[in-house]
Design brief:
single chain; mainly alpha; two-stranded antiparallel sheet
Length: 66
């Protein structure tokens, strides 16, 4: 998944303003205790990060975005 696709999906799931907040503020255990942004900055594959988002927010991410 391209980084631009990742951000588009995150914004579709959470809205543009909240997506940025989620990415920088929420620590996900699925990402070894890092935020989404920290994981991306560390070079974690976007697919791995997206799967962590889906696992952390199963009720928030629409099935069409899985």
């Amino acid at each position: 998944m391209r980084l631009t696709d990742f951000w588009t999906r995150l914004e579709q799931a959470f809205g543009p303003g909240y997506a940025t907040s989620i990415a920088s503020d929420q620590v996900l255990p699925q990402l070894a205790g890092r935020t989404i942004q920290q994981a991306l900055d560390a070079g974690v594959d976007t697919v791995v990060v997206w799967r962590a988002v889906v696992a952390a927010y199963p009720d928030r991410v629409p099935a069409r975005l899985h």
